[in-house]
TrEMBL record:
Transmembrane segments: 12-34, 46-69, 76-94
Keywords on record: Membrane, Transmembrane, Transmembrane helix
InterPro entries: MFS, MFS_trans_sf
Top-level taxonomy: Bacteria, Pseudomonadati, Pseudomonadota, Gammaproteobacteria, Lysobacterales
Region spans: Disordered: 173-194
Tagged with keyword Cytoplasm: no
One GO molecular-function entry: transmembrane transporter activity
The name this protein goes by in its record: Major Facilitator Superfamily protein
Species in which this protein is naturally found: Lysobacter spongiicola DSM 21749
């Protein structure tokens, strides 16, 4: 297994796409964090904790993922990383409790750290020479930088039109159910369709 090329990411494009997607997922959450922790007593501290737990999770679990990468094919580990991050982002954007937010952010960091050794291993095994290996690793780094650059823009662009959190999505129907408060007194309730027809007939005959 050690000498076999990983199936699915032997070529450069899938690995570059995975590297960019992981960095993009990290950056896309950043503009949303103020909305996610809006109900927290200290939003600034909550954002700092969410940022720190992501990095801490990657640092702590990095040696573990290196050992796992020696036992599992790299393409399986990359898929596990992408699926795990997707689930963690759903938890992060649909939860309002601080404990769940920290857990979701930590899981996102854990699964993000899983892809790094897998992608580097796949690039090293697929390389035909030392120069090719350096080029492939450099391409992975550039793809991650591009994803990290586009991530905040994607998150910021979708934030006004997309219900990123449970609070924002649930607030929309609740606001529609509440009566609009203004200086004018509420008028009579709207007429039903039969009443409107009778009113139109009476008006035209008179």
């Amino acid at each position: 297994m050690a000498g076999r090329e990983p199936v699915g990411i032997a070529s450069a494009r899938p690995g570059l796409a995975a590297s960019a997607a992981i960095a993009l997922a990290y950056g896309a959450v950043l503009p949303v964090l103020p909305t996610v922790v809006a109900s927290s007593p200290s939003p600034a501290r909550a954002i700092a904790e969410l940022m720190a737990v992501y990095s801490a999770a990657m640092v702590v679990t990095a040696p573990i993922w290196v050992l796992v990468c020696r036992q599992l094919p790299a393409h399986l580990l990359v898929r596990l990383s992408l699926l795990g991050q997707a689930a963690a982002m759903i938890m992060l954007l649909w939860s309002s409790e601080t404990t769940m937010l920290l857990l979701a952010r930590g899981l996102q960091g854990i699964f993000a750290g899983a892809a790094l050794p897998a992608l580097q291993t796949a690039a090293s095994r697929a390389a035909g020479s030392e120069g090719d290996r350096s080029q492939r690793l450099s391409d992975l780094t550039r793809a991650a930088l591009v994803g990290g650059l586009l991530g905040p823009g994607v998150g910021g662009a979708r934030r006004p039109t997309t219900a990123w959190s449970a609070r924002s999505s649930s607030a929309l129907p609740c606001s529609c159910l509440q009566p609009q408060r203004s200086g004018r007194r509420p008028g009579p309730p709207p007429l039903s369709w039969p009443a409107r027809v009778r009113h139109a007939i009476a008006t035209s005959s008179s």
